[in-house]
Amino acid sequence: MTIPLNPETCGVDFSPERAAAALERRFDVECIRRDFPILHKPLPNGKPLVYLDNAATTQKPRQVIGKIVECYENYNANVHRGIHALGDRVTTELESAREKVRAFIGAGDIEEIIFTAGTTASINLVAVGWGRRFLTTGDELLVNEAEHHANLVPWQQAAQATGARLKFIPLAANGTLDLTALDELLTPRTKLVALSGMSNVTGAVNPVREVAVRAKARGALVLVDAAQSAAHGGIDVRNAGIDFLAFSGHKLFGPTGVGVLYGRRELLAEMEPMQFGGNMIRRVRRESSDFADPPARFEAGTLPIVEAIGLGAAIDYVTAIGWDAIVAHERALTAQAWGQLSQLPGLKIIGPGAEQRGGIISFTVEGIHPHDMAELLDRCGVAVRAGHHCTMPLHAALHISASTRASFSLYNTSAEVDALCAAIEYARQVFRRG
Ligand code: C6P
Asked: Where does ligand 1 bind, in terms of residues with CB under 6 Å?
């Protein structure tokens, strides 16, 4: 039997226990937690950390941290430039990370993988590089009000710049997509449908494949914002019929500062670069230039090299554990949290039932502002996010200004779900007393 872990490429310290657990596809959460140093550091108030803000960013395992240290200590150099040993090594590492991303999302070719600064940068690149080139007056972009601002504002800008118009897939009462009228909304003028794989507020997992099939029938392209979904399950861009896919390294156990744009080869070949300078050219004359082929055409300047290599280590990490095991663990936590939270008096969960969502639960509690709630939870060591979560139109549609959000990851435990509920009860007591 081959061990599905590669200490060579993943950095440091794959413990034999971890390897054995991964081999058996047994999910040992305590074992996994040992990979994340931050989870064992007490907070300034002495409480143990209960980190439930994974939708904002995930914590990093030692395998990723170790890989970053390994890069800086052993082969730090610029890529695609230096004719020296360090330059060769780091270029090989970077391109190996690109290959890992390709395999991770099921793309056909590494030239379809562009390293960017994150999901926001990736979507902007499509909105400008594809949108400004191909959209004209009267064209339609199909979006929805539940999207993160990163998958709405760039399309507003593209529409304003080109005369295209935004159309919205309606939302059901719980904030999920209502696809009943999708076929009528899609017209021959629809050029692109932009939607997330999973909402960062409702946690709803969108039926991307179904939308893609229906969009394709009308000749529209499909862009998927996988900022949240990338950390919760396998993606297969070809099988799902996705034309563009965007995600961030930092929500997938990798470093900040790096993200990915996948684009189908034929589409990238036609797109305009958004940034100009070194690395993205083929030939520069005094008055004009020719640009390199993708991906270099869209990677002007020095890349987030070490960050991209760190992302490669993060992909190795989750792949070694196995998505089936990760998803099963997160589903169990989400079901437990949904069940317990929905019993708490005055607490209203936003979005669908546990079976239709990934590991994100946003809620409101009668009489307690979400910011106060987050602050009181923090006193108990429970880290959550409060606010509009960069989804103002969704909150407006739900007639609320803010919500509190707990989001789960592979290292969270059933006891931490209990701790969340106990901390909410504490907050209710504080407000009752006050
Ligand atoms: N959501 C959250 O707490 P960046 O910042 O570029 O890495 O990711 C932007 C982004 C795009 N789409 C979705 C669905 C997202 O959730 C995010 C980031 C964080 O919900 C920070 S606002």
From this structure: 55-56, 118-120, 148, 150-151, 196, 200, 225, 227-228, 248, 385, 389-390
